[in-house]
Fold:
Amino acid sequence: MSVEREFAIAIVGGTGNLGTALALRLAAPGVKVIIGSRDPEKARAVVDSLRPRIAHGMIEGYANQEAVQQAEFVVIAVPYEGHATMVAALKGQLGGKTVIDAVVPLNKGRPFVPAAGSALREAQEILGGEAPVIGALHNISAVDLQDPASSLGDVLVCGDDAGAKKNVMELIRRIGARTFDAGPASHAYVIEGLTGVLIYLNRKHKSKHASVRITGIGE
Structure:
């Protein structure tokens, strides 16, 4: 699947900070965004609140399963506590789609490695090959993400399906971020864990903008 043509992206758990920020950023270049929630009324209310901030593009809100049915890309953006339950609820509906797992295992802001090895690995185990799972968007500032005029940090993208990873990288470049192929799914625990470091830096320096920047390559 090429992201050069028109496509839709569903954000599951899209009513949270990351989901709404990503929706705003994606809608700016005209991507069709579908916000999903367990409560469709909540999804529609969030969409109504975002529409005045979107000059172009289309944004809609539905129950999670309906949102996923209409999309080629599905972003998982729930807190880690609901990650396994959410992925399991979507199993059987993801064939032919690409899953972008942006979930970070955190306990009171501190990273930890779950039993599966990472959130991405957990999703892979649950889905059993139904759809490629690509890890991305873990280390980006939600505050910067929701402002199309703000510059973004670099996005590290990992996964085992080279074609899906390439498409996800092209998609993320549409929102104005540089992307780097950060290797296979086995690297996900490192990338996910960096978010805990960024949270610490934000707290220490009273900021909301800490992100990752790769130097020495791709300049």
